[in-house]
Every structure is written in C-alpha cells, then in structure tokens.
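Lab notebook, bench 4. The sequencing result for the construct came back, and we need a structural model before the next group meeting so we can plan mutations. Quick request posted to the team channel:

Model the 3D structure of this chain.
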Amino acid sequence: MRLTIAFAAALTLALPALAQDEPEAYVWPTPQISDDISALPDNVRATRAALINAARTGDIEKLRPIIEEQEFPPNVSFGEFDDALDYLKFVSEDDDGRQILGLLVDLLDQPYAFYPDSGGETSYIWPYLSEIDPNALTPDQQVDAYRLLNTEQIEELKEFGAWYYWRLYISETGEWTVFVAGD
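Done. Here's the predicted structure in token form:
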C-alpha cells in the first residue's frame, strides 16, 4: 500500500513537468544585406578600405599593421596557429599569400550582411552569401556565388546546406575579427 501511495505521489509531482510545452525551436534572424558601402559605420568602412589597400599591394605583410593595431588578431583558423599571416600564407595557393590577398579583395567587393538589433555588437560579414542558404540563392545571388566559386564548389555547398567557404567579419568598432573557411 505504501508503495502505491509513494508511486502516486511521485507521479503527481512529475505530471506538471511532463505537461510543460516543449521549448520553441530557435528561429535564426534574417540578415540585412547591402552593397551600400557608405551605409557602413565609419570604423567598419575604414577597416574595409585598409584591408583592400593592403591586399592590393601583393604583400601579405601589409596586413600586419592592421592586425597589430587591434586588441586581438583576427581568427583565421579553427585550429591553433601562432601567427595569422603565417597561416594565411600556408593555406594560400602560392608561397607569398597573393592568392589569399586576391580572395580577400574579392570577398570585400561583394555585398555584406549584418544582423541589426542582434542584442550584441553588430558584425558586418563578407560575402553576404555566407549568411544565406545556398539552396535558396536567387539568380542574381548565384551570379555573385560564381564570382567566388566554381560549379563543383557551389554544388558542394548546396549538398552541405551551408556556406563553408571563406568569409570575413568586421565588428561595428572596426575590428577585423574573422577571416576563415570551414565550419
């Protein structure tokens, strides 16, 4: 009898927890997309211009002063690497990092994405394509994708269901925070 009463009491206590609604699935916000460079915050616009100017010299070391002016270097790898520029030279298709510099210019030539009212510091993201489902690209977005990738790479992104190619982030304070590929 005691066991029945104990079981009934435990069940009575557990029922409210079992009856609670399941938490709603998180819905990712929709990014704002723009190609209006003049709409960027001044600090972001200045960092973007400095990155482009440094990259166009063909000397990857010209990025070093941008990195050294910041509190933290940009994240360029999901692994440990002591020096951001050494890593970028390592992954470049040439020994001098010029392929990576060309890529950096190409990314910054694309429209950008950002999430207003995100509750934290806003980051500006190039290319905007990295924030869009590759299976839902409009024809004009597909043209932008072909400016960076070949058909095989785009098909891989579609199969994966997300962008894992290179992307670059600049915070609203002008810090170059991310330049990575992969996911």
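Confidence is low (pLDDT under 50) at residues 1-11.
Will bring this to the meeting.
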